[in-house]
Here is the input.
Amino acid sequence: MFDDIHDLIGRCIEREEKAWLEFIDRFSGLVYYSARERLKRNGYSFSEQDVQDIVQNVFMDIWEKSMLTEVRERHKIKAWLSITGQTRALNFMRKKKERLLSEEELFKVENIVSDKKEDYESELIEELEKAVENFPPREKIILKLNIVHSKTHKEIADFMKMPINTVSTIIARRKELLRKILNSTT
Amino acid sequence: MRCLDEKTLSSYLDERLSDAERKGIEEHIADCNICLGMLSVAYESRSRSKKCPAILKDKIKNKLGLKQPKKRPELKWLFAGLFFFILSFVFRHYFFQFLAISVILGFKWVMEGESAKRVIMIFKGIQEKEKKVERKSPPDVSNIAGGDRYGKPE
Here is the structure.
């Protein structure tokens, strides 16, 4: 119905009912995916109800606090919505943990954070962190995206607005160096 | 290290930033794994197809007090079922065949209704919860002499 996102957001700011219905239909999936992925990647054990509560709260806040007025580039709202969904997901789990701690249900708190995957990832990040300590910021980001976040060269180039050849060269050169560093430490 | 706010962080992916602004954000995300992780998921979320449960969408709309246009109930299955039911009496020779088809279509109509979907979701939710409780319940050690269920001495 609203082809232009800029127009859709404008009408949402004016609290037009049809626009809000479309806004929810169009973007609730994105917020749902982002919140869920964030909880999964942080190693939280969560229920479907937790994710649904988070997504509901995000849209409630956007509505009640008129957060859409703060968006600078309206036609590029997806990244902002995704990051908002993720930060709310982290806050939600933090609060849940605090609540359970205050209720002294410690065994439940232990169950919120699982499991081996997180241990493995944090170990990997720690090792990588040490090895790339002295690399320039851009190269650190490229390596982390490639090794920790499993992004392809093309995706990294798009993410960082860089030519793909430069990304590939940096990854090849730095991985070689990393191999040497890690071999010398083991 | 203090994380970047949502607006600044998202601007890295979506806006045309000046070199200085871009560099500033990169210097932060190079050392902040939380912010880099958020950007990584935000980047993925733009391209991967995402579905939000219809019930959740309805809940959000209700909470915001939005009036949804009334959905027309899916009547095509009902009419098709009725049609075959009538045919079963017209062509008596194939009575049971037509009757079976009309029963299948009637079942389809019932299962596609909103209330049936809700019942299925509730049932799935209960099943999931039961599975979780089974997985997570601590072992029963109450029989062990001298300890409560967490193994603490009484």
Q: What stands out?
A: The domain at 116-185 of chain A is CATH 1.10.10.10 (Arc Repressor Mutant, subunit A). The first helix of chain A runs from residue 5 to 13.
